[in-house]
Amino acid sequence: MAQTFTFFFICFLSFYNLYSQNKKEYKDEIFKPFIKTARLYPAINTPDQDMQVPIVSLSSNPGLVLEFDALLEDYEQFQAKIIHCNANWTQSMLSDIEILQEYNAFDLNDFEYSQNTKTLYVHYLFQVPPTKVSGNFILKVYQNNDENDVLLTKRFVVFENRVTINSDIGLSTSVARRNFNHQIEFDLTYGGIKVSNPHSDIYVVVRQNQRWDNAIYGLRPTLVRQDQSYMEYRHFNQENNFQAGNEFRFFDLRTYLFKGQHIAYINSDAEPMIAHVFPGENRSSDVYTEFRDMNGQYFIETREPQAGYLESDYFDVKFQLNSPQEQTQNVYVIGAFNDWARNQENRMTYDPNTQMYSCDLLLKQGVYSYAYYLEGNPYYFEGSYYQTENEYDILVYYRPLGAFTERVIGYSSFSSKF
Predict the structure, then answer these.
(1) Pick from 151, 114, 125: nearest CA to 64
(2) pLDDT for 50-64, tens place per residue?
(3) CA distance 359 to 368
(4) pTM: predicted TM-score of the whole model, two decimal places
């Protein structure tokens, strides 16, 4: 009797652990302070490939590349694993053999040491193997062959070209918001797939500037013509609205020999080196100014004479924002460089003597775009203008009745310009 009870108890614990794991929402996250500058991008061999979205076609998958630095003096062995996820970024029920052609455990053996840098690091590179199916995926990197000792997780998406997407960007239909918002309207034609119930089987996600944190999830179609395999998404209650925001702030930190654009101070003798970004001001009441920006992205580069990419060093970068103190809300500096996260590392502190918010972040040499974010009112410091140029994309998920998870059957990207 005791053995039977023990057997069922162990089975219950196993099921509970699997259930708990499947309910966890995966994100782009760094879990160890010595991991920096983690990037996942398609291997398309263009100068700006590391700024491209990690979304690739299943049929013509160019492959994905993961790069990151470990601020260590010597190489340590890390491992990687690929996890298939549902549309809500919880782990799906698909097994490893259903998603990959090979064993799902990879040693990260491609590494190089930094050269002539004050901050020592080991640079790791990993070629992500192609998947057998479409969907949401997480690339998890861990150490000591312990999957619970996680260093970082990165999201990526593999899609099928089974849907035609026609999109349009306009001003908001709300008179009160038309000067501040973009309205995304689109239609889908899914003739290549047999869909029993378009309302429940198809799920869409709309994103702005490669961000998941402010994406629009689960828009319902406003018109379905099932006999024509056609769905329309043209809402009038602002469900399909994004605040347009403003062109991003930026700074150029490609050299320590002189102050780059929007850099106020450099100390190249310190370890790590120190740089101060020019103090920012509240831009919400300014007139919109058009200039070409990177929509929150960044790229790594050094312009020191004869220096290679392994000689790109790290700076302790100080951000400062002139503003009266917001008593109840936190202020953050955000961008793709920290996966748009809002945590203790990038939360700004207020000094009543200088009447400034400030934050110090360890960043690698390069050019960075960023924004100041007020909790509860994201565009309080930046302003929002319909003229702002943004990148948008649409992901179409398909999960018929009885399926274990979603496929991604369509993807489209486009830009706003007014």
Answers:
(1) 125
(2) 999 999 999 987 899
(3) 15
(4) 0.92
Decide if 267 contacts 315 (C-beta within 8 A): no
- Structural domains of the chain sorted by starting position, each given as residue range(s) with its CATH number in brackets: 25-159 (2.60.40), 164-244+387-415 (2.60.40), 249-374 (2.60.40)
The Cα-based distances of 322 to 107, 198, 343, 355, 378 in angstroms read: 46, 50, 21, 6, 17
Contact 138, 26 (CB under 8 A): yes
| Among 302, 276, 275, 271, CA closest to 365 | 302
Distances in Å between the alpha carbon of 91 and those of 19, 118, 170, 404, 405?
10, 40, 36, 11, 9
Distance of alpha carbon 273 from alpha carbon 14, whole angstroms: 49
Pairing of strands 135-143, 78-85: antiparallel
Phi/psi class of residue 304: alpha, beta or left (left: φ > 0; alpha: ψ in -120 to 50)? beta
CA distances to 241, 243, 295, 346, 362 from 388, in Å: 14, 10, 10, 25, 29
Across the chain, mean pLDDT equals 93
Taking the C-alpha atoms of residue 84 and residue 354, their distance in angstroms, rounded to an integer, is: 49
- The set of residues, in sequence order, having a beta carbon less than 8 Å from that of 130 and lying 6+ positions away, is 61, 63, 101
pLDDT of residue 22: 60
Burial class (CB in 10 A: 0-12, 13-18, 19+), 193: middle
Alpha helices by DSSP H, listed for 223-378, are none
Q: What residue ranges of the chain have pLDDT lower than 70?
A: 1-22, 418
